[in-house]
Amino acid sequence: xxxxxxxxxxxxxxxxxxxxxxxxxxxxxxxxxxxxxxxxxxxxxxxxxxxxxxxxxxxxxxxxxxxxxxxxxxxxxxxxxxxxxxxxxxxxxxxxxxxxxxxxxxxxxxxxxxxxxxxxxxxxxxxxxxxxxxxxxxxxxxxxxxxxxxxxxxxxxxxxxxxxxxxxxxxxxxxxxxxxxxxxxxxxxxxxxxxxxxxx
Amino acid sequence: xxxxxxxxxxxxxxxxxxxxxxxxxxxxxxxxxxxxxxxxxxxxxxxxxxxxxxxxxxxxxxxxxxxxxxxxxxxxxxxxxxxxxxxxxxxxxxxxxxxxxxxxxxxxxxxxxxxxxxxxxxxxxxxxxxxxxxxxxxxxxxxxxxxxxxxxxxxxxxxxxxxxxxxxxxxxxxxxxxxxxxxxxxxxxxxxxxxxxxxxxxxxxxxxxxxxxxxxxxxxxxxxxxxxxxxxxxxxxxxxxxxxxxxxxxxxxxxxxxxxxxxxxxxxxxxxxxxxxxxxxxxxxxxxxxxxxxxxxxxxxxxxxxxxxxxxxxxxxxxxxxxxxxxxxxxxxxxxxxxxxxxxxxxxxxxxxxxxxxxxxxxxxxxxxxxxxxxxxxxxxxxxxxxxxxxxxxxxxxxxxxxxxxxxxxxxxxxxxxxxxxxxxxxxxxxxxxxxxxxxxxxxxxxxxxxxxxxxxxxxxxxxxxxxxxxxxxxxxxxxxxxxxxxxxxxxxxxxxxxxxxxxxxxxxxxxxxxxxxxxxxxxxxxxxxxxxxxxxxxxx
Lengths: 200, 541
What we know:
The complex is a heterodimer of chains A (200) and B (541).
Chain A (H helix, E strand, L loop, with lengths): L8 H32 L1 H9 L3 H26 L3 H31 L7 H5 L2 H37 L8 H25 L3
Helix pairs in contact in A: 1-6, 1-7, 2-6, 3-4, 3-7, 4-6, 6-7
Chain B lengths: L20 H6 L4 H30 L9 H20 L2 H14 L8 H23 L15 H4 L4 H28 L12 H33 L12 H35 L6 H14 L15 H29 L8 H24 L1 H7 L3 H31 L1 E2 L2 H28 L13 H31 L1 E2 L36 H7 L1
Antiparallel strand pairs in B: 1-2
């Protein structure tokens, strides 16, 4: 009986969901800060939101939602033992995640170019509410970006494991859990979009 | 209850894998070894922070102020708090006894995620090392107090960023442990181990794990905001940029008050194991204790603002938080009544673990009742930020969690190491601990009522007598603690061999050898009754 590795896919999934709860609460702290500050500075948040590029924000939403779909398709493909298709879908997900980051970096770059970044001389001339708006904008989209990067790292490992057969038809819990993480990244973005881009 | 025959399996303390010695310990995924890794590390931190506390008391005998400057004193109370809270009482009983006994008590071979469990320990150690580094690098040891209040924590030149990051990493360790324990309890219970047949320590660890999951991320993000604020000036807590320092206090206490229950709940759980064993009867009010743990976890999450009664809040908020604070005392009192109810008409077998458990109840009651005093708004205004607060939380955290930690250590010591300590030496150490404790911390309660503010380097002449009493008390306390740890250390090295069931306990850990074999049970037990049925056992024998 000993020497056999204990395997419990249900337990692994439960553990992952609990971890996702901690992630939700982590962002929850920022959402508390956001709602309080928005209550305090409604006009400034409105004005701050109008500085953001809605087109790029919506494009990124579509990119990220599509990448969530391709992760699900990759899991289905693994369940059906279609390794090549799974690899194709996972690679698509990684590519979409990278596109998201590239668009994001253009957005941040443009803000920096206009002098809209924390501690900038230009920002200091704006009303306090707008300074807080951009502080929160960079913090929350930045933390989200970190999660995208971590997710891409995890999914790259999954790509490797699918290729080497460590993730396969009868053993795909790791991929499934990575997919759950990727959906979380997606869900948080769905909240960030209206809070910042559509705040105007 | 079957007694094991002479078992062929070696104890978990013997290296059976390919790795030997220290390397085998540092790469272990055995929950029992990980528990000991936590225990050894935490004991070391405890002794360091105890030493710092000892020095802080000496400073109040003003002649020692030539040795310690005011800035150093600020660093000392910050570091004492950070180490004691983040490196001792928060991991506390959960990381040590939860790791060691949770799987055994529910009849499992290990936790759900053994490798994650080891990773949690490494996160813990990484956080601890960062915390120590923060003392000697950057602008020197943080001087903000353990609560890192903005805006001072944003402006001070000391190395707050690294200390705060250390707390962030430690929080990660705590969260992962919580995830592991919840999954373990849901998935790893032995056949027949229904929820209401679990020993109550498991319920306590379960409630704690939920707080660890639901509260810790809030402090994690708050501390990240402090770091971002210090490096990039994002402005969320900075009034000059439209931010609000009060927001920091709220976010900090949304975690740090529930964290108090992370510290005390497993302690209560351990006491609940000890009392039936030495009263030789079933626990009084099993479900009341189980649900009161969950109630504490729930209501305890809604009382955070009682740390901020003088910070500025609406009258309505003040009254609500005051009311909720009073309410949270109820489930704690339920437990105390149940413990006393269990002892009543029990056939009491007086042993060192019971002595420390009773000490816990006594000191915790003082801590709890002074807590209710502070929940009253008018009283709070008078005693806010005084030594009364310091005395109160040392009664709860040290008199409560600390004494329960010692009681649990004495109770499970023979199981963990297979050795027995000198009971006489433990009794001898109890007297200086108890006398010193009350001189020190009751002295602080009195000082607080007289008006002595906390965290002050100097004091007015009228406070001097009580300061001397408290400082002398600290000497007794330290002496007792050193005797206590010395006795146990001697027992680990040279103690007599302990029996498998020295206390006559009936929960599952007493059915296996001392120390337990690697996978705990030769065959997974089948559980047919509740955890504390002494009568049933006596009937069979």
